[in-house]
Design brief:
This protein is of the alpha/beta class and about 525 residues long. About 45% of the residues lie in helices and about 25% in strands. The protein is rod-shaped.
């Protein structure tokens, strides 16, 4: 891939990453815009409900007063005077009166002889509580006007149907309504309302929903069989969304620019990494540290794992988890392994002559396990260092064992040199017990992620114990990685794990420091 292609990819990657916060700010603005619109509609519905309940309280208080004061004629001068008194003291009642057979025979404004007929658009059965409610009612003395009339015991209160809806709104597109659960019909409406909206009603809590055209809020009274409705076109929600977008978008753009620049720099660095690694290989910037491996039964150092490190010319360190994947993806991993083996040969010197039972573990990548060149390099390393049987241990990850046919041939050739083989990071991939049995393996290394769960109350601690039992069934020796506490070491030993490495025993060190470590161990007996 040429530099121009790398630049195009880096720019595209940075644009994608940078667009994420902007997209999130838009999504969040849409969500918050809906939340704000729902709150606005619920506020109107609650206001209408307050006015409706206030009117209902005045209605039943007035009816109760009239029924309690009644002595004989329900339309006596005293009763009509009381009707007028109730009218004057009420904020919502137009008039109090007395009804007989759907006719208003008297009211606070006077008597009507045979009575004024009350016409309605729906039935008005008397409820179990004795209440009779007329919705959308009309009286001849007020042509063209609609009223809600509530009666009990003959006495009734007449309310203009628009009273509960007489609220100030901030939109001409807002719809308001009160709905009677007693009569299953609207008592009052303003704007477009639909009866099917009531199918979403919850009598326990306020409800909001949209029918594709309008956002709707429903609030049910806990005191009366009444529901109030507030609705607005979905387009009104865009006003709230634009407000939120005006607040959130600058933050999203700023975050997007910052992330985009960071992604661009990281992409450039990552895509430029193969060239930097190739230069590092040419300039021999890679070096090794060795992490001691101890026998858990006596605490003595019996080996070490060679760990590759990269120090650039400016002194900065590049972590292995950054450059090793790049080396594998760019086809440079076998050159890295070759330099590791050369470095081991240069570092070891007389190590194996001084410590015949000591071994050095060397990590091999998937590509190494598919190449007979690796066997040749290991053979050369043995001849350079005088290494005998068991002085070298190669470590292969589960992922490296996936191409079984080619890998099995190379592992058999490595075994023919007397070099033992360990499977590393077991349990972090997809290998099964039956799959491992197809390879000639000698060691199983328990990954640090499982060791970390030991000696604590964690469900995943059982995984480590399961891996130990699996290794025993395969007759594999075990090395536990990342041991950091005495409790972990003790539990591993109790479970039959023979060897371990980790900061509890020693951190990775140079070969000179490792030789000094071994010398101190010998001096201590």
């Amino acid at each position: 891939m040429n530099n121009k292609a790398r630049l195009v990819i880096a720019v595209c990657a940075s644009m994608v990453v940078g667009a994420v916060p902007i997209a999130l700010s838009v999504v969040l603005a849409q969500h918050q815009g809906r939340v704000l619109e729902e709150e606005r509609l619920l506020g109107y519905a609650a206001n209408v409900l307050y006015r409706s309940e206030r009117a209902s309280q005045q209605v039943f208080a007035g009816i109760d007063r009239l029924n309690q004061a009644r002595k004989g004629d329900p339309c006596s001068p005293a009763q009509m005077a009381l009707m007028a008194e109730i009218d004057l003291s009420s904020t919502d009642i137009q008039t109090m009166g007395y009804i007989v057979a759907d006719r208003l025979v008297c009211a606070s404004v006077g008597s009507f002889g045979a009575g004024l007929p009350i016409t309605t658009e729906s039935e008005h059965p008397v409820g179990k509580d004795g209440v009779e409610q007329y919705t959308r009612a009309q009286l001849s003395i007020a042509p063209g006007m609609h009223f809600t009339i509530v009666a009990r015991g003959g006495y009734a209160a007449v309310i203009h149907e628009a009273i509960p809806l007489d609220v100030t709104t901030d939109s001409d597109t807002l719809s308001l309504a009160t709905y009677s659960l007693r009569n299953n019909g609207f008592r009052s409406t303003r704007g477009v309302v639909k009866k099917e909206w009531l199918s979403h009603l919850s009598t326990e809590r306020p409800t909001t929903f949209d029918d594709g055209e309008r956002l709707v809020a429903l609030v049910a009274s806990q005191n009366f069989p009444t529901v109030t409705v507030a609705a607005a076109p979905m387009s009104d929600m865009l006003v709230q969304t634009r407000k939120m977008l005006g607040f959130l978008l600058p933050f999203g753009v700023a975050a997007g620019l910052a992330l985009g620049v960071a992604a661009f720099l990281m992409a450039r660095r990552h895509m430029g990494m193969p060239a930097l690694l190739r230069r590092a290989l040419n300039k021999r910037e890679l070096f090794l540290l060795y992490q001691p491996i101890v026998d858990l039964h006596n605490g003595r150092c019996i080996g070490a794992e060679a760990l590759i490190r990269w120090r650039r010319a400016d002194g900065s360190m590049v972590p292995p988890d950054v450059f090793i994947p790049v080396a594998e993806a760019s086809g440079l991993i076998q050159r890295v392994t070759e330099q590791v083996l050369e470095r081991v040969a240069a570092d070891a010197g007389s190590l194996f002559a001084d410590y015949p039972a000591f071994h050095i573990g060397i990590n091999l990548a998937a590509a190494d396990l598919q190449s007979t060149r690796t066997v040749e390099l290991l053979d050369l390393l043995m001849r350079k260092t005088g290494a005998g049987a068991h002085n070298l241990l190669v470590e292969a990850t589960e992922r490296g064992l996936m191409d079984a046919a080619e890998v099995r041939e190379v592992i058999n050739a490595i075994h023919a040199l007397g070099i033992e083989v360990a499977v590393d990071d077991f349990g972090t991939g997809y290998s099964s017990l039956s799959y491992l049995e197809t390879f000639a393996l000698d060691y199983l290394k328990i990954d640090k992620s499982f060791v970390d769960t030991l000696a604590i109350d964690a469900a995943t601690s059982q995984v480590a114990l399961h891996i130990i039992e699996m290794a025993k069934s395969l007759k594999l020796k075990m090395i536990a990685e990342g041991v950091e506490t005495e409790a972990q070491a003790r539990l591993l030993q109790e479970r039959g794990v023979q060897f371990a490495q980790g900061w509890l025993f020693a951190r990775p060190m140079t070969m000179a420091a490792l030789r000094e470590h071994m010398a101190r161990q010998d001096a201590q007996g």
